[in-house]
Amino acid sequence: MTELRTPEGMSRRHFMSHLSTATMLTAPVAHWFIDALRAGAADMRRHHKAAILLFMEGGPATIDIWDLKPGQPTGGQFKPISTSGGGQISEHLPLLAKQMHHLSIVRSMSTREADHQRGRYYMHTGYVPNPNIEHPSYGAVIAHELAGHAGSLDVPPFISIGGASIGPGFLGMSFAPLVVDSNGDVRNLKTSLDTGRLTQRMQALGTLERSFAGQDRGEAAVEHGKVLQSTVNLMTSQQLSAFKVNSEPAAVLERYGAGGSGGGGGGGGNRRNAAFGKGCLMARRLVEAGVPFVEVDFGGWDDHQDVFSKLKDRLPVMDQAMSALVEDLNQRGMWKDTVVIWMGDFGRTPRINGRGGRDHWARSWSVVVGGGGFRSGEVVGKTNVDGTAVEGDPYTSQDLMASVLKSLGISLETTFTSKNNRPMKIANSGRVIRELFA
User: Fold this and answer.
1) What's the CA gap between 158 and 35, in Å, rounded?
2) 405 partner at 20 to 30 Å CA-CA among 67, 123, 208, 267?
């Protein structure tokens, strides 16, 4: 018997005609037919476009990670090692070194914000903070543009694991991040009510919401009603299982470094380390379930002192989780449709301060990307001999964002309208990093 595949463009009429035929078959064949259709639908969800942002909150010292300067006063303690792709990286990333033929390093980032709050906002949105307007983040923009291609999705299209990310700005609350911890627990959704009572209360609240919105209460009331409905859908959806990383085999959890207790912050190094591994594993599961954008936050990179001892603890955690994620996405046939972005608020100073640390630095630093339509194994741009400046063409936050959107097939001609009726070009009119594309 030949394998049945469901084409992506199958219409409802075509589907129903097949289903009616199946009901006339013997029971075992009918069950096989329906199972095959379900498998085809799952396959379509797996092959939608998506992005995973690994955000290193605090500003990682990329000069000690992706762009080492051995022998220079600014070079620090670590040695570079060769990789399967272009260039060398830190000796504390041996697993990622084997995956670098899938990834590309952009060593010529030169951004304009070296304050944590402002840098985090700028790197997430492509815009500097403005008191008169809230700009949408990566997650909101990509969810807005790709959510319609993900099929039936009860889970919100933007999930943030371990941190709150930056919000949807003028795109509205439908594209706000759903924040979960690394165990998949959704903030403010834990309840002791039984299902029946909970359903009754949510229905009553929904009636009040519709009545309130119907009194011409403006966009905020409508948006709040959408969030309520999304919450109801989420709480009763089978797709919630995607958050439950502990259902994975022990060997998979161990490969991601997620075999510890994990959790939503605090609790010491082992707990934090397991949390990032679980976050990366959850990101893979959520993308498989159809979520267009997942952010995984790995904080603690604000190393004004003892930078090298701290990196010796933190880099192996990042190495294990990120390498497992890249490997999994490739082995599962998801790499060409899923973009992975590694970045922080900014970099850290080439100069090592008197406390053995590095301070805030946005003038010359690195990010890493891969998957989607990106070229792999590339090293884009370079810094000078001591890492204090970009040589040649520097790239900005909006350039990086424009490149990510292009890699996902999102039109850079897209223009949004803000709430004060201003036209806002997607990715702040950033230019594509040409070396990342064939």
Assistant:
1) 29
2) 67
